[in-house]
Every structure is written in C-alpha cells, then in structure tokens.
Amino acid sequence: MIRPWVGGLLRRRAGRLVATALGVAIAVALLASLGAFLAVSKESMTARAVRGVAVDWQVQIQPGVDPAAVLGTVRAASGVRVAVPVGYAQVAGLTATGGGTTETTGTGVVLGLPDNYRADFPAEIRTLTGTDRGVLLAQQTAANLHAKPGDLVQIDRAGLAPVQVRVDGVVDLPQVNSLFQKVGAPPSSQPAAPPDNVVLLPQSQWHALFDPLAAARPDLVSTQIHIARTRELPSDPAAAYTQVTGAAHNLEARSAGGAVVGDNLGAALDAARSDAAYAQVLFLFLGLPGAVLAGLLTGAVTAAGALRRRQEQALLRTRGATTRQLIGLAAVEAGVVGVAGAVFGLGAAALVGRLAFGSVRFGTSPATALAWVLGAALVGLLIAAASILLPAYRDLRTATVATARQAVGRQRGPWWARYGVDLVLIACGGVLVWVASRSGYQLVLAPEGVTSISVSYWAFAGPALLWVGAGLLAWRLVDLLLGRGRRLVGRGLRPLAGKLADTAAAMLARRRRSLARSIVLLALVLAFAASTATFNATYRAQAEVDAQLTNGADITITEPPGTTVGPAAAGPIAAVTGVRAVQPIQHRFAYIGPDLQDLYGVRPATITSATALPDTYFQGGSARSLMDQLAARPDSILVSAETVKDYQLHPGDLLNLRMQDSRTRQLTTVAFHYIGIVKEFPTAPKDSFFVANASYIAQQTGSNAVGAFLVDTAGQNITAIAQRIRTLVGTSGTVTDIAHTRSTIGSSLTAVDLAGLTRVELVFALVLAAAAGGLVLSLGLTERRRTFAIAAALGATGQQLRGLVAAETSTLAVCGVVAGAGIGWALSEVLVTVLTGVFDPPPDVLTVPWPYLAAVTVTVVAALATAAAVAIQLARRSPISILRQL
Amino acid sequence: MSAEAAITGSAAVRPPVEGQPVLVECVSVSRVFGSGPSAVPAVREVSVAVRAGTRVALTGPSGSGKSTLLHLMAGLETPTGGTVRWPGLGGSPQGRPGVVGVVFQGPSLIPALNVVENVALSMLLAGAAPPEALRRALAALDRLGIGELGPKLPEELSGGQAQRVAVARVLACRPPLILADEPTGQLDHEAGDRVVSVLLKAAEELGAALVVSTHDPAVATRLCERWRMVDGRLTVAGDDRTEPSGGRREQS
C-alpha cells in the first residue's frame, strides 16, 4: 500500500511535497549555516586573538632564583618554541644634549634584548627611524629628549656613575602595556600607564651597564623570560584559553615557584572567548527565530494542503484503511519530505558557508561538525514530522469522516484568544525585559581568570515571549478585522473587486483562520528581516561612532606628553592635500578634590568642523547648545555623570579645579562653572573627565599647548592623507587614522564575524519573506481552485477573477506588511536594548536600513503578485477540467 | 400546500416550440480529449439544435458524452471539430454570466460563501448591484421553498439541498437556456424527483429551454423529448419539433 501511495504522491502531489521540502530545507540550511558561522567565527576569533600577541608568555624570575635553571625548565616545557631572557633595569633618568639645549626626563626603563629578539618576536618592536639594531629609543622617549639617531643619551643609574650611549634608531612599541606589565599581578593592580622613557639595548651592552647595578641595587634590575609558543591551539577560543592557561599553570608548578607567568596569550584568548560567547548569544537572538520561522513556514505550507490531505485520509478511512496504516502513510510522506529537505538544506548551507565565510565546515572539530549536521538534519525531520505527521495523527484522533470532508467549517476562535494568552505573553515578556534591564543586560559574564563563561540565557525569555505574544496578537487583530470588520474590508476592496467586493470580503471572513496564519507568518518573517537588519545597521553605526570616539576624528595627531606645541601647528597640517579641517584639543590633568582627571580644552565654536559630537554624548542639553554655552561663558565646564554624583553638582555651581600653571610649574586653582554632563568625547577615556573652553584654560594656565589635532578629511582617502601627515610630523607626534582604529578597537566579533552572520541572516530573511508571501498564497490559492473554477464556470470575466484574487493578495500583503512593520519595530527596540552589551557606545536611536527594508517589501510584493498571477492563470484554464479534477 | 409540493406534483407541460428561435445549434460537433494513441473522443460529429421552450432529456450510459455535449452547448468547452452557434442568445455565452444557466453534476457551490451569497454571486457576475442581487437571490430561494437555507454554508447542506440551491442560482439569473448535468445523479429517488420538479417549474416560469442529462428513466419520462447518446454519438429520440441534423431518431 505504501509504495503505490508514495508513487502517487510523487506523481500527483509533487508541488505540495516540493514546497514542504523547501520549507524544511530553509530551516536546515539556516541552522547549518549558523553552525558554519559559529565554527568559522570561533576559529577566526582564536586566530585574531593569537595574531595580536607579540610575546605569548612573559615569565618573571623570582628574586634569588637562578635564571638559567628557570630558562632550562621553560625551554623543556611542551609547546614552547622560543624562550629568551630579557633584562629590565630601572634608571633614574635620561638626558640628551643637542642643538644647544639639554633635555632631561624622569625615571625610565632600559631593556636588554638578545640578538635574535626581533626575529623571534617581530610584532613587539617597529622601527620608525634609524637602524633595527643597537641602541633604540622608544618614540615617546625620543620626543621627550628631542633625540634622533646619532645623538648621545646619558643614562643615570642609581648610585652609579651615568653612562652614555649613542642612539641607533627610534622605535615604536605597539604592545608596550604588556611589555611592561607587572607579571602575576591582577589587572586591577597593573600600572595605569607604561613608562614614558624606554631604551632598548643589545643584551651584551645591557649586561655591561647594569650588572654592576644589579649587584648594588638588585631591586632595580630583574630578568624576564619571553616565550613564543608553537600556537597549535584548538580553534574554539574557550578551549584554546583553557589549554594555554593550563600550560602556564603547569609551568609555574614545575618551576616550584621560581617563575611567575604573565600569560599574554591567555589574556587575548580570554577576550576572544567572551566574544565567542556573544557570537553564541547573537546566534540565539538572530538565528533561532529564522529557523523557527522556517518551521512555521513549512507548517503553513502543509496546512494550506491540509484540507486535501484530510479528504484523502477520509476517503481511505471509508475504504477501510486502519489508523495504523494511515499513520504509516503520513510518516512515509513526512520521511520523504524531511530527508529531501535535510539533504537539500545541508547542500545549501555548504554553499552559503563557502560564499559567506569561505568555509564549508560546520564545526570547529569533526565532532562538533557532525553534531551540527546531524542536529540540523534532525530539526528538519522534526519539522516535517510536526507539519505532516502530527496533524494527520490529530485528525485521526479527533475528526470524523464527515468533518474531515468539510471544506470550511464554522470559524471558532482559537483557544489562546479566548484566554488572552497573547496579551499575557506580551505582559510577561515586557516584565522580563524590564527585569533584565535592571541588571544592565549583562548577557555574557566572563570573569578574568575563570575558565568558564556564563551566558545569561534567562534574558532570552523576554524577547522570545514578546515575539510569540506579538505574533498571536497580530493573529487576533487580523481575525477581528476579517471577521467583525468584514464590512470595512468589503469597502476597502471595492477598488479591486468592484461589485464583488462584499463577496470577496465574505470569502476572506470565512477563510480568516488560514489567512490569519499566512498573514502572521508573513508579518513575523518581515519583522525578522526588519529587526535583524535594523540591529545590524545600528551595530555598524555604533561601531563607526566608537571608532570616531576612540580616534577622535578621521585622523588624529597626538602630541607626546610634556610637549608645548601650540595651536598654530594646525596651519601646516591644514595645508596637507585632502585635509578639510583641523581642530586643536588641549589635554591637561586637573584635580577635583583628591581625584585627578583628564581635562580637554576645545574651541567650542569650531570643534564640530573636525569631529562629530552627537547629542548622546551629553546630558543637560544638546551638543550644540552646550558648545554655545562654553563659547558664551568661557569658564563653563562639562563634567562626567559620576563626578556630578560624587560631588553633588548642580548646573551653575562653582567648581574649583587645581591645574598646573606652566609659568610657575605649580598647581593653581582655576574656577569653572558646571553647566552639563559629558558622557563621551572624542579621544577621551571611558572614565571621568572634563571638557572646557581652550582659550580660558590657556589664559588661566599660561599655556596653549595642544594635546592632539583632530583632522577631518570628509571620510575620503583617510589612509593616504594620514601617511602624508606622518611624513609631515615625523616622530614629533603620533598619527592615527580611523580606518586603522576601526580594525583594532572592535572585538573580533565586530570586525569579521557579525558581518558574515548578518549577511547570511539578511539573505535568509529575504528568502523567507519571498517564500512566506509567494508560497503560502500560491498554495492557498491552488487549494481554492474550485472556488475560482466555479466562478469561471458561472461566467466570471478575467477582470472579475483578477479582482477576487487581488482582494485576497492585497489583504495578505497589506495586513502582513503593517503587522510586520509594527512587530519589527518593537523587536528591533527590544533586541538593541537587550543586546546593549554588544554596543559601545549604546545607541540612542535605531539606525533603520531603509534600502534593505524596501528591497524586502518589494520582494514580498513581487512574490505575492507572481503567485496571484499564476493563480489567475490556473483559474482561467478550462474550469470544467478543474472541477472534474477536484 | 408548499411551493415545493406544488412543483413536485406538477406534470411536465409540453410547450409550443414550433417557430421558436434556435438558442443553440451544434453542427457536426466533436470533442476529443487528449491526443495521439491516448486520445478519447467524447463527442463525435453531433448535430443538434435547441429551440426556446424545448424540454429535452439527454440520456445514455455513463461516459457516453452527455456532460461534454452540455458543456459544449454552454460554451464551457471548445469543440475540436464542427461548430457550436448560439443564434438565439446573441453569440457565445462565454464571459456573459446569466445567459445560459448550468446545473453541474457535482457540488458546484463555493464553500466559503453561504447559500444566499452563492445564489447572488451569478447575478453579481452578470453586473447586478449587490442589493438587487441579494433581493433576487432570496426571492429565488423562497420560490423553491428553501429560503431557510440562506445562512447555511454548502458543507451544511445535504446533496439534494445543494442541488436545489444550484437550481435557485440558475433561476435567479433568469436565463433563456438551462442545462442541467445529471442533477439527480447523487440523490435518492425522492430528492431527485424534487430537483427535477424544481427545474421544470423554473423553466416554466422563465419560459426557458431545458436540457437535462440523466441516465434515470424516471427523470427522462418527465421531459417531452429524449435524446440518447451512445459512444459520443447522438441518437435522437424526440418529436418533430426538435431539429436533429445528424444521428438516428428513436421513439420513446
């Protein structure tokens, strides 16, 4: 019985089977693609994290321990590729004489590097000028001393005679923070800033100069072992982190306390595993709804043919088929659809993986890849079973032959509508989101040094309930509109259906249950597309804001501390080709009570010519109004919210800050008036700082020294213009551009993977939208061929048939788009709010990607129009032959 | 006495058809379904004409081509040979709702419309204003004694009720030609008898020609003329007022 039945299905109901299998395939493909995304993103996160580390481990040899013994232990440890000793000596100061002036610095650090150090650790040192070997000065030290290659620099050793060295080159130390870390100390007790003055010496020279110091003052001289590991790590950042930190602990244990490991590699992987957890979070928020929708789509496709299926089942029952046989037939159909959909979906996912991520891997290891493939396929089979087998079983249990043969049935409200489940879900979702908001939406918690990461999955419940509740509410409203609002619908359909408008409205009213299902599905798909795209657009906009905030402007020239470059230096920079505007910003420090904070002096009237100041950076007024106040009353000052709270400030309050007077080198009290709160400011740190009028500061402190120049290039040729400015300023300032900042400040999640995820999401959303619109309508209309055939047999003209089809199509489109827009907007707000941890800084308003949304809407309308055109063609085919078939 | 009872009890009246205009005329009409070796000739070179006021029973075994011939006359099928003309109807009824009333063999009511809406639909298609269509639909249902079925959905009707609603739909449009395809095929004798009575009554009221295909002799005897189809060919059993131009005559 099964073989002829399946043969018949394949021959006569191929369209139905293909449509259902396509729905399954979309779900499988989406899940498997997301598996590929997670695999690739984790892999790339690990790779990026590892790539950014110059020295994997810095082993601090404890006082009294033989360095050679520790070095031997380290070199014997597994996974260690290179291990070399590096000397650290603290010096009292540096002095350089040249051009008739003598420059002296404060304390500094002199490193002794082995000959092969730069080959072993290429990312640690970058030559700016001069040679790669010999005596090298850090860029800031060279600027402080006004020294260049060939100059003599005197090194002051505590208790010993000073020595002179000749400078061979000036270098940049990109990872200066980790190079001078306090090994073994927790992050909170690490130095706030690396040393300002650094000299790098060849190891032999270093020993000659500092072995005597080590003997006299062992507290000022120490040795570290710098290690490069083999980096054969698991692709999952969490697993890699566990492996690396485990190995570091193992080394510490084997050295019996003689070595403390500064685990730079582990620290980088720690950040990456947190990103990986966020990737997982995004998968849940952005990926799962898509898969659920694909499942719902399959269910709707199956439901569109449910009447036929029930009638076939009823026929078989009248011919004596047993329940077992009927379930068997449904199971076979579900199996055919599920397997075909899973195979096709996995193939599509492989293609998507190849196109979007450059990989067809579904997991970071064979086991996870197999789990993703099997998991996705299993979900496909479950969807097929839930769509076909479950309704068949339910019908067999509850429907009689007579009811199964009914075509329409009196429309009863669904049970959930009677109990107001939709409203309850929305209320519960709202409460959960509110509760989550109180904890600051901390979805991912990755405590430093703790192997496991906790993801707050509870936070997903709120948006999920809102999503389901909004869908059901849309259903209720559509049901209400098509049922009780039938006259209204009839009036609305008159332009399309003319005198048949009321008849069309009557048909819609009687079919409102299946129509509501299609409309809600379409609305949810549109909402999925809208919320995903809006989240993506907002994220990108905020990443840009973050880059702008961090870098300050398109290009920023930061002057070394202690230099006295005045605002006039902006002139030559402004003359560089491609530069549109230059703005000097003062950077000082000021005491408020016992607290030392950064203070930025700006030209309020023109600051926005070089950098953007969104209103979200401020509180107590718009950016424009607060800058106007700074200009109108020069002693005004903007203060961080924390300071306002700590010092109980109110607008207009007098604020006395102590700042260094450049004339006396002493701290002097400068009076300001508090006018508003500044939360963010270009180049400013994350914590508390002040923003004030530059002219007033210059007048009060006797110095107009500039901390940084912000350069606007209108976003054009940033890298090339930055290079021209670098040539202009040489080593006297550090030139950074936003393009470089963009790629470094963002987590690995920002830079690479989210783009891939959203690309996949957006394409799938488009496919789902087209499928939801076209497929559901087309199947629904196919099932209603009898209606149109009867109308045609009664003599309906082509225009009248088109009117009837257009009535249903336009109802589906209008209701779907309106409900989709509403749910999409609400979901976008919730998504952006709940995922606020991903954003830095959090957005004030949503960035709506109108072109994409327009494309989705056009796709849906085009799919609906195509389906309607096909339905009209079918209806106009010989009505008698259709009636004979049905 | 109810209207239904009155109809059921009425005898077939032989209308005077001499000199009446020819409503539909088939000239050597053939209809073949499919092509090649699997081609099925449903109607073979049938020539026949129906005048206004005619009452014809089209009999013959299942698959003999009765339905196809009716569909050709209604303009719902296109002949593969010969010509069908509608001189008394002003041309093809195709796309002109209400010119020819067809009662189909199977269920022909739109499932998503109730009885009144189903009956009103054909008039709406013919261009009637919605209130007028509704009024005439209710009147037609009342005339057939099934006014109380108005709010019901087709799935809530018995087979006989559904066929009477289909007749009401035809009646409401007042067509000059009614073609009924096995209207009693799925009904018991009593229900079938009632439907035929309704059809005769409707034709009488409208002055319409009526052609009923049936393989029920009881139904056939209630009509004045009888045409018989065998293997797609027409063997006319009728009186001299029908106008056979092909086939072989049979006396009933």
Strand content of chain A: 15-25%
> Which shape of chain B, going by the Cα principal axes?
globular
Largest beta sheet: strand ordering of chain B: 5-6-7-3-8-9
* Strand/helix succession of chain B: HEEEHEEHHHEHEHEE
Write down the overall geometry of chain A: elongated
User: Structural class of the helix and strand makeup of chain A?
Assistant: alpha+beta
Radius of gyration of chain A: 35 Å
Fraction of residues in helix of chain B = 25-40%
Number of helical segments with 4 or more residues of chain B: 7
pLDDT under 50 segments of chain B (min length 5)? 1-15, 238-252
Count all strands of chain A and give the number: 25
Helix/strand/pairing category of chain B? alpha/beta
Distance between the termini of chain B: 33 Å
Largest sheet of chain B, in brief, is: 6 strands, mixed
Describe the model:
The complex is a heterodimer of chains A (886) and B (252). Chain A is an alpha+beta fold and 886 residues long. In chain A, the strands form 4 sheets. Chain A has a 9-stranded mixed beta sheet with strand order 6-10-7-11-5-2-12-1-13. A 6-stranded mixed barrel of chain A has the order 17-18-23-20-22-21. Chain A starts with a helix and ends with a helix. The relative contact order of chain A is 0.11. The model of chain A has no long low-confidence stretch (mean pLDDT 82). In chain B, a hairpin with a 2-residue loop joins strand 8 and strand 9 (233-237). Classes of the chains: A alpha+beta (886), B alpha/beta (252). At the A-B interface, helix 18, helix 27 and helix 30 of A face helix 3 of B.
